[in-house]
Design brief:
The structure is a homodimer. Chain A is of the alpha/beta class. Chain A folds into 2 domains: 130 residues, Aspartate Aminotransferase, domain 1 (Alpha-Beta Complex); 251 residues, Type I PLP-dependent aspartate aminotransferase-like (Major domain) (Aspartate Aminotransferase, domain 2). Chain A contains 14 helices and 15 strands. In chain A, a hairpin with a 3-residue loop joins strand 14 and strand 15. In chain A, helix 2 runs antiparallel to helix 10 and helix 5 packs across helix 6. Chain A starts with 9 loop residues before the first helix and ends in a 6-residue tail after the last helix. At the A-B interface, helix 2, helix 3, helix 5, helix 6 and helix 10 of A face helix 2, helix 3, helix 5, helix 6 and helix 10 of B.
Chain lengths: 417, 417
């Protein structure tokens, strides 16, 4: 797919930036001068409004108002409040989304609940290329239960066939962290329901990146994280969506006081709170949540459709630039070639991906390396412009042409991410 | 127990403040002018160093260094780094403490691990007055497992008798949130071990408040929170201690990618990390953790023995002032009368505790109400002086004498905490 039949120039991309309806959002983020940040799908950039709001929660709400802030500054329902906002980004209904814990912990809650909702079934279906923590959490729970519970893995092309009548829950990541491949959420959900299974979607690479309609697709559970496209800050708490119809039937495996019907009467026995509140657990990290809320509020100002349109166009152009500038065979696209089938990132396999990525970072182009040989470039339309795509590809071209990646320090594997 | 045979005066307390070896720490905290804060055991005060450090992690580490901060700013091992510092406050050995998740989630991990370490046993022993979330978490896990697992509750005086040979784990809070009563940690641990049970201590009201020697007592598991005496900020992440001898034998029920032996090689199957690292789960909330580290660092500067000595003296004096100023029968002490048997708080039962507490707050004395009829006053020796105890009691005396608590707005139960 080509945007234009002619060769693309940097000037063409400047024109696209000028006409970009989302252009104003770029100034709402703080990014170092000259840095090309194509890793917002790993850690989103910092909204300029965040430091002042964080200062306020620390100095005024904590430092001055102290314990009273649970009441007077709304700490007590911050998990529901931010959850409701994220719910609007993913097509959830009122009272179906909270912010709590990490994505991993929320996956655990959802899987455990799914087994109780389908007491005669013991199989979790997923794919081997799912994000590892999803698989690890499923493995940890099924191993612990040890009563024939198991995790069944099938390649994406075989997923539908794997959803048989013994499956309790299908757990998939909507947009693959590794390839950017996007599932047909509605179709897979329908297939799960047809087999009587619960559908659990991991929206880590979807929320704030692609339109999601959980209500329209009748999804049962969903999780996702706050620190990628939602720009909520490092390790920002995660979200959990539970369809309203299931909420009254869930007795949380993680029964904490925040999920009690009356946390501050200190009753001896657990009584689940109404609705999704029962899936909160312990006291939430207020400062990190406050930063998350700023990111979510900013995301809510943008049109998800405009955002998706720009994301798709950025992907198409990036793909075209890679082909045009690097020529055949330098790298090979791992992501689907059809834009509608991929999220807001492109992944390429290439030899020496690790040192090439190190060399890119040293030259101010931050993407991601994903084992074993993948370079991942994320497009975050709120703050990444078109010209930056040109400059990123130009930098990659130069690194490959000059073999400047081939330095001992770039080969060293001392870094953890 | 009386400090002096004479009647105490405000001047006596001024003298104690002048001679207080911890006095210098008061200036390291930011507290509103004139506020008497006796609720540091619910939410600790803000260290003055916190805002600058939080600004740094937000603006520089996130905003400027972005994803690189996992490596260059030490985010990747922040859970181990802060854990090690807290470990020094509770007598843990190297590599036995991490910071992760909430206290509730850590209780869950520990209880689940205890059942695996004692596979032939299915009973959790606790007391009905334990902090509710401890009981709720135990209830949630035992109910979910549903294979004869149960929670056995015994009053503190009967605890030792309840620890029979069928007990997998004894779970107690070292210092009671409601009465301040402190268990003999070594003795109960020995009793648990004699019966072949695992010992799990909740140190929420102990860490940073009273000396704890987990190594000396050979404790198996401990948890606690960062937002009370550690002054880590609202909802600060919690800590988890696991004795080194158990670590290799634990397959975490919550198996997340941060607890994997190699999180960033994205392997398909879970391989537990070495040691306690395996009990981390998801990406941790870095901003809240950064605030916690400031509080812990400050606490490490103080001598825990000096801190305990002042705490004990503050309790004795407060008790004496209550008796001297309020007279017989106005309130009744719920905490143990022997200072060595209580933590860093005093609790009194009285009629109309709820509106009295509201009236105190309106007059700048912040303690805590605990259902059904308890006023709780916490002593945090790093920033609470002796004169404040006088002023708090004087305020309480005036409220009771003038019945100024008896206003409709003070009776209303609109507040959640």
């Amino acid at each position: 797919m080509k945007v234009a039949s002619k060769v693309l120039t940097r000037r063409d991309l400047e024109a696209l930036d000028r006409d970009d309806p989302l252009r104003e959002f770029r100034d709402r983020f703080s990014l170092p001068e000259g840095l090309i940040y194509l890793d917002g799908n790993s850690l989103g950039a910092m909204p300029k409004a965040t430091p002042a709001r964080v200062r306020e929660v620390v100095e005024d709400e904590w430092g001055r108002d102290l314990i009273r802030s649970w009441n007077i500054n709304g700490w007590i329902d911050i998990q529901q409040r931010i959850g409701a906002k994220i719910g609007r980004l993913i097509g959830a209904g009122d009272g179906e989304t909270i912010v709590a814990d990490s994505t991993s912990v929320n996956l655990f809650k959802a899987l455990a609940a799914a087994f109780e909702l389908r007491p005669d079934r013991k199989v979790i279906v997923s794919e081997p290329g799912n994000f590892p923590t999803d698989l690890y959490v499923a493995e940890g729970l099924t191993r612990y239960l040890g009563r024939g519970h198991s995790l069944r893995l099938a390649e994406p092309s075989d997923i539908e066939g794997a959803i048989t009548e013994d499956v309790a829950v299908v757990m998939l990541t909507h947009v693959s962290y590794r390839t950017g491949r996007m599932y047909d959420l509605q179709r897979i959900t329908e297939r799960a329901h047809a087999a009587g299974a619960i559908m659990l979607w991991d929206l880590a690479h979807s929320a704030g990146a692609v339109p999601v309609d959980l209500t329209g697709a009748d999804v049962d559970f969903a999780v996702g994280c706050g620190y990628k496209y939602l720009n909520g800050g490092p390790g920002a708490p995660a979200f959990l969506y539970v369809a309203r119809r299931h909420q009254p039937n869930i007795r949380p495996i993680l029964s904490g006081w925040f999920g009690h019907a009356s946390p501050f009467t200190f009753e001896q026995s657990y009584r689940p709170a109404e609705g999704i509140d029962r899936l909160t657990v312990g006291a939430p990290p207020i400062i990190s949540l406050t930063a998350l809320e700023v990111g979510v509020d900013l995301m809510l100002e943008a049109s998800i459709d405009a955002l998706r349109a720009k994301s798709v166009q950025q992907g198409v152009i990036f793909e075209e630039l890679i082909a045009q500038e690097l020529g055949e065979g330098a790298v090979s696209l791992v992501s689907p070639s059809e834009p509608a089938m991929r999220g807001s990132q492109l992944c390429y396999a290439l030899a020496n991906a690790w040192p090439v990525n190190r060399a890119l970072i040293d030259r101010g182009v931050i993407g991601d390396f994903r084992a074993p040989n993948i370079l991942r470039f994320g497009f975050t339309p709120l703050y990444v412009g078109y010209v930056e795509l040109w400059d990123a590809v130009a930098t990659l071209k130069k690194i490959l042409a000059e073999r400047s990646w081939d330095r001992p320090e770039y080969h060293a594997r001392t870094r953890v991410t």
